[in-house]
């Protein structure tokens, strides 16, 4: 069979080579490629490696020849003998026993695709219309991203250059609205429900370019690559992988290495939802250390990867017994060093806080004190104590029951406001917590006013953090009036109320305490002196109380800070 293929290639060389060589131009020098296509000496050399080698080479070369003829030689100019020869070659190749056996198998094999944590295809802000014309998916990753975005917006490439300005502008406006609405449905941070800026897309076309702009609720316009790394990663992941899973990615195997590491916890949950949807069309295998990316609904899908110890260390993959859900949850919790939302923790010392903002504040202040030589406070940032974000005091009871066990200690930190005081009293009365397992922020103050960790940061630092966190949305000269002290409302909630009254009506923007805490953490990392000695002393007193509760520090009364 191989010799018959070589005879056909010899005949094609005599008929097709002169036609193709005559089409050579300065822009498309095709001689070298065409010469290689008809290089029978190379074919005969390949024959020594076996018939399958020469047949594989023939498939590649004949596929190129078919494409070259279609692109450069009009059908009426082709020799009538050329097409029958190509057909004969195709028939012989298809009759190859190796092809007949392997082809059905290869068709059933999935396509494997690996995506690392740093993966992203930047979505261009401006793309020449000429690069989009007559292009199909798979030609270029950057172009693919734009084409998929247009598909999501339900607008065709040819509509971008329609002669009618009115029709084009209307279609672009409609496409922008559809794109915005669809993205908000898959991106929690774009809905405004959590105090974060909404996101809107705006498509525009000039004489030569398609422009993609992303606008936040505060009016900030920018190209996609001006957005955060996490936003870009999520958007391009959705366009290139989630949507593709329903199309050419169907039945593929997607390997993800640490997906979502740049995402806000809300977006990590969105990502898990997308991957769950994708699993209906393809198989997804991903490695993670993020608790929000563990699918609690399908524990049977979990695998624990670990390194064995010893001279010949190797990778082991354990399958936690998902029929014993509690055991499986504990195994995963240990692997992730994470909060008890995934099951029973294993840390001997555990601190329960109301929200992620509290965890961020405690961590950075503990680090500042350690850097100042006060290493007795390092236990709150060096991993000695596991800090749990309960997402509200209403969850304390359930978490306390999961955490409390022989060999483990727990301390629950409460804001000293009406809600925190009621929750603490109820937990003590129902024996979910002992009084010695609780600490109130207000204990480091003499008066009975409501207090939270934002009080310990101070109004001035909190205001700077707000301006940093919402720099793109807030108008120039933005400021807040210092809230009056209240026996019922601590500083954190007072700031949320003042913020809402100042800008909420005009910008439809709410204050997210986690965003402010992250900004405060960044400010303090850059300049620890922003936390003055008075507020730092109160943190030290609070950490003393937490340490005493956990038996981490020797029992002694904290300094009188009245």
Task: Give descriptors for this structure.
single chain; 562 residues; 4-stranded parallel β-sheet; disordered C terminus
Structural class: alpha/beta
Measured on Cα atoms, how large is the radius of gyration? Answer: 32 Å
User: Spans with pLDDT under 50 lasting ≥5 residues?
Assistant: 193-197, 322-328, 337-345, 554-562
Number of helices: 20
Give the strand tally: 13
The largest β sheet comes out as: 4 strands, antiparallel
Helix content: 40-55%
List the topology elements.
Layout: H1 2-21, H2 31-37, H3 40-47, H4 51-72, H5 82-94, H6 97-108, E1 112-115, E2 126-128, H7 129-132, H8 141-153, H9 165-184, E3 199-205, E4 209-216, E5 221-222, H10 229-242, E6 253-257, H11 265-278, E7 283-287, E8 304-307, E9 315-318, H12 325-336, E10 349-353, H13 356-371, E11 386-389, H14 396-403, E12 409-414, H15 418-429, E13 438-440, H16 453-457, H17 459-469, H18 491-507, H19 513-526, H20 533-549
Parallel strand pairs: 1-6, 6-7, 10-11, 10-12, 12-13
Antiparallel strand pairs: 2-4, 3-4, 4-5, 8-9
State the gist of this model.
The protein has 562 residues and is an alpha/beta fold. The chain is 46% helix and 11% strand.
């Amino acid at each position: 069979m191989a010799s018959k293929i070589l005879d056909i290639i010899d005949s094609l060389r005599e008929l097709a080579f002169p036609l193709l060589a005559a089409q050579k131009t300065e822009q498309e020098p095709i001689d070298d490629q065409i010469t290689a296509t008809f290089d029978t000496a190379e074919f005969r050399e390949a024959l020594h490696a076996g018939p399958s080698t020469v047949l594989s080479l023939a498939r590649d070369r004949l596929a190129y020849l078919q494409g070259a003829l279609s692109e450069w030689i009009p059908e009426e100019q082709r020799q009538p003998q050329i097409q029958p020869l190509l057909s004969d070659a195709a028939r012989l190749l298809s009759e190859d026993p190796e092809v007949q056996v392997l082809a059905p198998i290869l068709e059933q094999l999935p396509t494997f695709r690996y995506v690392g944590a740093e993966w992203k295809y930047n979505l261009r802000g401006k793309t020449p219309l000429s690069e989009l014309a007559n292009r199909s998916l798979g030609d270029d990753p950057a172009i693919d991203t734009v084409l998929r975005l247009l598909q999501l917006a339900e607008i065709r490439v040819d509509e971008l250059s329609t002669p009618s300005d009115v029709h084009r502008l209307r279609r672009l406006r409609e496409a922008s609205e559809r794109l915005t609405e669809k993205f908000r449905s898959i991106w929690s941070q774009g809905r405004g429900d959590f105090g974060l800026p909404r996101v809107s897309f705006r498509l525009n076309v000039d004489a030569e370019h398609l422009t993609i702009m992303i606008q936040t609720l505060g009016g900030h316009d920018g190209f996609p690559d001006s957005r955060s790394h996490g936003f870009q990663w999520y958007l391009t992941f959705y366009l290139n992988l989630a949507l593709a899973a329903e199309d050419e990615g169907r039945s593929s195997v997607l390997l993800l290495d640490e997906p979502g590491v740049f995402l806000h916890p809300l977006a990590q949950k969105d990502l898990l939802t997308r991957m769950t949807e994708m699993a209906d069309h393809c198989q997804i295998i991903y490695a993670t250390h993020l608790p929000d990316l563990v699918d609690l609904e399908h524990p049977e899908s979990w695998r624990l990867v670990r390194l064995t110890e010893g001279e010949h260390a190797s990778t082991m993959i354990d399958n936690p017994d998902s029929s014993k859900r509690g055991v499986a949850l504990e195994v995963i919790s240990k692997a992730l060093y994470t909060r008890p939302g995934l099951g029973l923790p294993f840390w001997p010392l555990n601190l329960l806080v109301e929200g992620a903002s509290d965890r961020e504040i405690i961590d950075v202040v503990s680090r500042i004190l350690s850097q100042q030589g006060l290493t007795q406070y390092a236990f709150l940032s060096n991993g000695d104590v596991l800090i749990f974000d309960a997402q509200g005091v209403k969850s304390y009871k359930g978490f306390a029951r999961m955490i409390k066990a022989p060999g483990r200690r727990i301390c629950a930190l409460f804001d000293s406001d009406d809600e925190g005081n009621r929750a603490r009293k109820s937990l003590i009365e129902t024996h979910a917590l002992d009084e010695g397992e609780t600490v109130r922020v207000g204990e480091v103050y003499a008066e009975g006013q409501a207090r939270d960790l934002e009080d310990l940061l101070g109004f001035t630092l909190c205001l700077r953090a707000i301006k940093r966190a919402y720099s793109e949305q807030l108008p120039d000269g933005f400021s807040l009036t210092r809230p009056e002290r209240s026996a019922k409302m601590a500083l954190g909630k007072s700031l949320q109320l003042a913020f809402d009254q100042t800008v909420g009506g005009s910008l439809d923007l709410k204050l997210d305490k986690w965003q402010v805490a992250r900004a405060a953490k960044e400010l303090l990392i850059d300049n620890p002196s922003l936390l003055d000695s008075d507020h730092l002393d109160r943190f030290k007193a609070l950490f003393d109380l937490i340490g005493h509760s956990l038996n981490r520090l020797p029992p002694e009364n904290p300094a009188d800070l009245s």
